[in-house]
Design a protein that fits this description.
About 65% of the residues lie in helices and about 5% in strands. It is mainly α. The chain has one domain. The chain is globular, with a radius of gyration of 20 Å.
């Protein structure tokens, strides 16, 4: 199958537009986080409110301890208890790797103004910085109005995003895979060289979106809502392919990482009473190990 190349000026225009949107997103999220920090920091001076990670060392310590337990479940999950699913994902990754170039060519040959605008929006809503802002906003809003469930959802989203995003960042630079827009093949790798546009595998937008989808889907019994969350995450993945930011195999692996991160968070919180796990912790600034569980 012949490779179809996008018109360079038009592609450059879309890239510049997306960089502008991405920059604006980061600025907005940073401002939101600072506002939440100020509000929750000064809130106890005005009214009686729930302790938060912003104003309580105890709550912050508990958050790090819980995150450590969730991270342990995340690391173990591909073998225990999801070994069959891991094998299936490995097969899907290998298959998508074989067809990376074909998928890219097919998408490049079917560009349209409508799809371009739609995928611009898809990449925007899939921005990991925006997701962190949403999680912080939910957590902060729950603290301001003393709504424990809202705070918990914000916590779960934030924890799932941290696990997913940290994992993808580490893999990106370790693998050093060239993005499609570099013009290299899908087998071009420059590990640990930290070069621009050689951080394709896996897709952080996709991983972050699936982590959010899992957490939000776990909060509802509505099948249509569950489908909506995962459809949104899938469209983010498609948007990254359409814009030549990633190969198909990049988003396949990222979706699995995001799903696993969300699963680790919800599974940890659903641990039955008496279930213990060992996790890293901090005690007065001294690294230590903590037994975590529900009693």
């Amino acid at each position: 199958m012949n490779h179809v190349t996008l018109d360079t000026p038009r592609h450059a225009q879309f890239s510049a537009s997306y960089r502008f949107i991405s920059c604006r997103t980061r600025t907005t999220v940073f401002a939101t986080l600072m506002l939440l920090l100020l509000l929750t920091g000064f809130l106890p001076l005005c009214v009686e409110a729930a302790d938060t990670v912003f104003n309580s060392k105890v709550v912050l310590r508990e958050e790090f301890t819980r995150l450590g337990g969730e991270a342990k479940l995340f690391v173990k999950a591909p073998v225990d208890p999801y070994l069959p699913e891991t094998v299936a994902v490995a097969g899907a990754f290998a298959l998508s790797y074989l067809y990376d170039k074909d998928v890219r060519s097919d998408l490049a040959a079917n560009h349209s103004r409508t799809l371009t605008h739609a995928t611009d929006a898809g990449s925007f809503v899939g921005d990991p910085y925006l997701h962190i802002g949403v999680a912080a906003a939910l957590y902060g809003a729950g603290a301001l109005v003393d709504h424990p469930k809202l705070m918990r959802i914000g916590e779960e989203l934030g924890e799932a995003l941290i696990i997913s995003d940290v994992t993808t960042v580490l893999l990106k630079d370790a693998v050093g895979r060239g993005r499609p827009q570099t013009g290299d093949s899908n087998s071009s790798f420059r590990p640990f060289q930290f070069k621009n546009n050689y951080d394709s595998l896996p897709s952080m937008h996709t991983g972050s979106s699936f982590a959010m989808a899992h957490v939000l889907a776990s909060e509802t019994e509505s099948v249509p809502l569950k489908i909506l969350y995962y459809t949104g995450a899938s469209f983010v993945a498609f948007s990254r392919l359409y814009q030549e930011k990633h190969w198909t195999s990049d988003v396949v692996l990222a979706a699995a990482i995001g799903e696993l991160a969300g699963n680790a968070v919800t599974r940890y919180r659903a641990l039955p009473p008496g279930k213990l796990t060992l996790a890293p912790s901090m005690n007065n600034g001294v690294p230590s190990l903590a037994l975590l569980g529900k009693f």
